[in-house]
Amino acid sequence: MVAEAAKQSSKAEMMSVKRGEPTLVPPAEATPTGEQYYLSNLDQNIAVIVQTVYCFKGPSPGHEGPAEVLRAALARVLVHYHPLAGRLGISPEMKLTVECTGEGAPFVEADAACDLADIGDLSTPDPAALGQLVYSVPGAKNILEMPPITAQVTRFKCGGFSLGLAMNHCMFDGLGAMEFVNSWAEMACGATELTVPPFLDRTLLRARDPPTISFPHREFEEIADVSGMAALYGGQELVYRSFSFDPDRLERVRALALAGGDLDRCTTFEALSGLVWRARTAALGLAPQQQTKLLFAVDGRRRFVPPLPKGYFGNGIVLTNALAAAGDLLAAPVSHVAGMVQEAVRMVTDEYMRSAVDYFEATRARPSLASTLLITTWSRLAFDGADFGWGEPVMSGPVTLPEKEVILFLAHGKERKSINVLLGLPASAMDAFKDLMDEI
């Protein structure tokens, strides 16, 4: 794992990206300003910056440069997504809101001292190297000082380029972000109307009056660290790694989940989540009595009654959970753990989601990540499908994971039937996790 860290460090030095000065790209036409744009309670809980990079082969000689095309298309798409041109603020109710200032999104042009091929693939997060391809506002002390979105176009010596985006999760979930990027791509290709216009009104998800909490909502539960995890993470370097599961390997994981007789059927997500939760618990060496929590997001768009409108601009996801003592988790077969994941999925009904919205209204609590694994699934999101006029990205992926407790499931391969499992662990735990994955 030391060699892995050294390799990432040398890649960061080789790239040597030089940024120009950021400029603001406002909407191409007048948009509503001077008002506060409402963010729902589902948006409040996940105000973290998500950084992604898309790499393209580049335009043919004689064509307009990518930076000019992307800048002009961004201005046009911001007319439809005008809250992204504003800035985050705090409402009188002490919640996050968007001040509709119309000032625009920061846009940066940059040049890298290497070819696109030199950065390798994007299957593993690499903050030191890939972080150079995304613009972060220098000196920003908190989320309120960061714009909802920034964009950076980096030109490579080979003629290829990358588009690096830093987007605040409170503005949209994965599906919403994908729809925004695809809409931007449509504008770059000359479209005058969007295939999926954004539905901007988030008041659909206002809390009930009075709030009605009908579930325990253990996703917010604080768990005591009785295993010395803080010392482990503090004392070792965090190593990122990607584990690939092709269709054959995924079928073996499903077979493991079905073998114990606890389940008649299960999805690939349920089986893989159960396996990874159990393996990470073992790799970290958690004490048998240590409570450990699994969190993951379920798309509530179709589960709400009535369903959320097509193009809903905002977070339509709700966190669900499973809890177990580490000793019980490791003593149980994969089938039992996959069953716990399945039960957590079933729990997400319209009433559960409304109760979660109301829980935040009444408590202002945020989900605790202490002794927790948070699985984020991008395996159904076609982030590599955005064609801005130069064909689909030759590769795309995350710069880093937003928190050390997060594991990302990312679709992989031409047919999108493989899944890459991306995670970061202390070096010793990553070695143990790899050994467990090698057994599958």
The parts where pLDDT drops under 50 for at least 5 residues are none
**Secondary structure tally, helices:** 12
Supply Rg. 22 Å
The helicity comes to 25-40%
| Secondary-structure-derived class | alpha+beta
Shape: globular
Compute the number of strand runs. Answer: 16
The average pLDDT is 92
Multimer state: single chain
State the end-to-end CA separation.
21 Å
The biggest beta sheet is recorded as: 7 strands, mixed
Instruction: Provide the β-strand percentage band.
Output: 15-25%
The SSE order reads HEEEHEHEEEHEEHHEHHEEHHHEEEEH
What would your notes on this structure say?
The chain is α+β, with helices and mostly antiparallel strands. The chain is built from twelve helices and 16 strands. It has helices at 2-15, 41-44, 66-80, 127-130, 174-188, 229-235, 247-259, 268-283, 326-331, 334-346, 350-363, 427-438, and strands at 18-19, 23-25, 36-38, 49-56, 87-90, 96-99, 105-111, 149-155, 161-168, 238-245, 291-299, 317-325, 372-377, 395-398, 406-412, 418-426. Helix 7 (247-259) crosses helix 10. The longest helix has 16 residues, at 268-283. The two termini are 21 Å apart. 44% of the residues are buried.
Which helices and strands appear, and what pairs or packs with what?
Elements: H1 2-15, E1 18-19, E2 23-25, E3 36-38, H2 41-44, E4 49-56, H3 66-80, E5 87-90, E6 96-99, E7 105-111, H4 127-130, E8 149-155, E9 161-168, H5 174-188, H6 229-235, E10 238-245, H7 247-259, H8 268-283, E11 291-299, E12 317-325, H9 326-331, H10 334-346, H11 350-363, E13 372-377, E14 395-398, E15 406-412, E16 418-426, H12 427-438
Parallel strand pairs: 7-8, 11-13, 13-15
Antiparallel strand pairs: 1-7, 2-7, 3-6, 4-9, 4-14, 5-6, 8-9, 10-16, 11-12, 15-16
